């Protein structure tokens, strides 16, 4: 499905075929006047936690917030036309000194992206939440940041990687596997970092969230079925809530059962599944609170997202 038209369309029809819901655009003269304008994809809000910094370090990062917001908000990461609204992304960076130098920093980064809801002008759904605890870089006030995907930079390469993952997931939510190109670009950044011997990129772990493990799953055909299920969650569920809430909840329950089947087939831990349910647990509990049609949905959610068992049990009980 073409993301650009979907984000601009005024009419949407959902029809069922072979258990999957497809999107068809209703012809509208409005589309004849669409002018494609190349635009940036990200609408960033950056927050810095500087409590652990010395006075010298504070002076060096006084421009970091504005510098990062300007860089992320003005950059086109995919070189594709982007007519829809920018993706809201909030980034909280907890800084600490990374050594004796006043310009050397270690950081924990917390990233949250949101996805708009079709038919609900002000509505958004938390799309993904990432926590990266392996970031270190050098920075001095008013440093110049530039986009170069073929050259490793300790600041921009990490940010570019996550922005491309977020863009890919956004595109996946409007069309099956439409995020492939963005994920390929993120994987290329990983390879550039690995070739540069950069810290924080090399670990491929089943137990620990890493950049390499995340992009490995997003570019591995073994996970295509789960990515398609994420698409169904949005198109057949979240986007249908404003037009047919009962049907939307039934579709969400069905998609959750398919996700449980996927996890049962794929025995090893999956960071993609963990990241998805970390972002969606509160939304799912709120949507399905008191849902009685198929109580198996709560059992499936607990199987998929054990750490939020109490949340799903409370939703099952209507609390």
Question: Care to give the gist of this entry?
Answer:
The chain has 11 helices and 6 strands. It is an alpha+beta fold and 319 residues long. The strands form 2 sheets. A 4-stranded mixed sheet has the order 3-4-5-6, sandwiched between helices. It has a two-stranded antiparallel ribbon with strand order 1-2.
Overall mean confidence score, pLDDT: 87
Compute the separation of the termini in Å: 38 Å
Strand order of the largest sheet: 3-4-5-6
The secondary structure category is alpha+beta
Number of domains: 2
Number of strands: 6
Number of helices: 11
Q: Could you give a short account of the major beta sheet?
A: 4 strands, mixed
Strand content: 15-25%
Flag low-confidence runs.
1-5, 7-37
Output the radius of gyration: 21 Å
Give the topology string: H per helix, E per strand: HEEEHHEEEHHHHHHHH
Helix content: 40-55%
Shape: globular
Please provide a written account of the structure.
With 319 residues, the chain is α+β, with helices and mostly antiparallel strands. The chain folds into two domains: 3-219, no CATH class; 227-316, no CATH class. It is 42% helix and 20% strand. The chain has a four-stranded mixed beta sheet with strand order 3-4-5-6, with helices on both faces. A two-stranded antiparallel sheet has the order 1-2. Helix 4 packs antiparallel against helix 5 and helix 9 (271-288) runs parallel beside helix 11 (309-316). It is globular and about 60 Å long.
């Amino acid at each position: 499905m073409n993301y650009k038209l979907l984000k601009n369309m005024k009419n949407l029809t959902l029809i069922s075929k072979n258990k999957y819901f497809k999107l068809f655009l209703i012809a509208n003269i409005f589309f004849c006047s669409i002018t494609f304008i190349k635009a940036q994809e990200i609408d960033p809000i950056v927050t810095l936690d500087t409590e652990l910094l010395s006075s010298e370090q504070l002076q060096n990062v006084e421009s970091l917030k504005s510098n990062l917001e300007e860089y992320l908000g003005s950059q086109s990461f995919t070189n594709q036309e982007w007519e829809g609204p920018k993706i809201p992304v909030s980034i909280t960076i907890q800084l600490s000194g990374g050594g004796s130098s006043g310009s050397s920093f270690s950081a924990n980064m917390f990233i949250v992206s949101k996805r708009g809801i079709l038919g609900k002008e002000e509505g958004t759904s938390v799309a993904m939440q990432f926590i990266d605890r392996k970031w270190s870089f050098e920075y001095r006030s008013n440093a110049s940041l530039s986009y170069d995907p073929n050259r490793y930079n300790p600041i921009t390469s990490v940010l570019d990687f996550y922005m491309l993952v977020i863009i890919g997931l956004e595109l996946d939510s409007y069309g099956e596997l439409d995020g492939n190109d963005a994920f390929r670009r993120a994987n290329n950044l990983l390879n550039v970092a690995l070739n540069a011997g950069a810290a924080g990129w090399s670990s491929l772990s089943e137990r620990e969230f890493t950049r390499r493990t995340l992009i490995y799953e997003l570019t591995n055909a073994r996970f295509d079925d789960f990515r398609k299920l994420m698409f169904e969650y949005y198109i057949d569920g979240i986007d249908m809530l404003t037009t047919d809430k009962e049907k939307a909840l039934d579709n969400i329950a069905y998609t959750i059962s398919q996700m449980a089947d996927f996890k049962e087939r794929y025995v090893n831990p999956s960071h993609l599944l963990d990241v998805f349910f970390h972002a969606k647990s509160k939304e799912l509990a709120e949507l399905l609170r008191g849902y009685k049609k198929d109580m198996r949905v709560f059992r499936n959610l607990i199987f998929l997202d054990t750490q939020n068992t109490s949340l799903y049990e409370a939703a099952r009980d209507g609390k």
